[in-house]
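Backbone-to-sequence.
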C-alpha cells in the first residue's frame, strides 16, 4: 500500500484514508461502536492509519470507518484526530447528520429527494439533509452510483442537485470497477 500513496502523491490523486473499522454485520450496528471495551481496538486502527500515512499530501480527509453505526468510540476518535491533525477534515458515514463525529455529512446511497424510511437507520434525501436548520457542513456521498447491472438510472438527478446546491459536493462512485451488464472482449 505505501506505493499506492506514493503514486497518488506524484500524480495528484486525492485520497480519503479510511480506518479499517466496519461492523455492518452486527445487530444493532452500533453495538461495538458504542461499547467502551472496543475503544482500544478502534483506537489502534485509527492511530496506526494516521501515524503511517500523515506525511502523504494526497490524503485530504481522514475517515473513521464505514458502516459501523454511531457511538462513543467514534466520537472519541474524532476528537483525537482533530487534536493530532487539525489540518484535515474528518468524515464518518455511520452517524449521518446526527453525529458530531464528522466534518462532512457523508451518507451512503442516499437518494436525491426521496427519504428511505429504513427502521434502524432512516436515510433522508440529500436535499433534506442539507436543509436541516443550522446545518452548515458539506455533504459528500461516500458511496453512490454503483453501476452493477443497469442500476445507474438516476445519475443525472444527482448531478443536477450537485450543480444546484453548493454544499452538495459530489460523491464517490462505488467501486472503481466496470461491472456493466454486457462486456465484449477481443478474444
Amino acid at each position: 500500500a505505501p506505493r499506492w500513496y506514493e503514486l497518488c502523491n506524484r500524480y495528484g490523486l486525492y485520497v480519503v484514508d479510511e480506518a479499517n473499522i466496519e461492523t455492518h454485520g452486527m445487530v444493532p450496528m452500533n453495538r461495538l461502536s458504542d461499547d467502551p471495551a472496543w475503544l482500544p481496538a478502534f483506537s489502534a486502527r485509527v492511530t496506526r492509519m494516521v501515524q503511517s500515512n500523515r506525511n502523504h499530501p494526497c490524503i485530504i480527509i481522514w475517515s473513521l470507518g464505514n458502516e459501523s453505526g454511531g457511538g462513543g468510540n467514534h466520537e472519541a476518535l474524532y476528537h483525537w484526530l482533530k487534536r493530532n491533525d487539525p489540518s484535515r477534515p474528518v468524515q464518518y458515514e455511520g452517524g449521518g447528520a446526527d453525529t458530531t463525529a464528522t466534518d462532512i455529512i457523508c451518507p451512503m446511497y442516499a437518494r436525491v429527494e426521496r427519504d428511505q424510511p429504513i427502521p434502524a437507520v432512516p436515510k433522508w434525501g440529500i436535499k433534506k439533509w442539507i436543509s436541516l436548520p443550522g446545518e452548515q457542513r458539506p455533504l459528500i456521498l461516500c458511496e453512490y452510483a454503483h453501476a452493477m447491472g443497469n442500476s445507474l438510472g438516476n445519475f443525472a438527478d444527482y448531478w443536477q442537485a450537485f450543480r444546484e446546491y453548493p454544499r452538495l459536493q459530489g460523491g464517490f462512485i462505488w467501486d472503481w470497477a466496470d461491472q456493466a451488464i454486457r462486456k465484449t472482449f477481443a478474444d
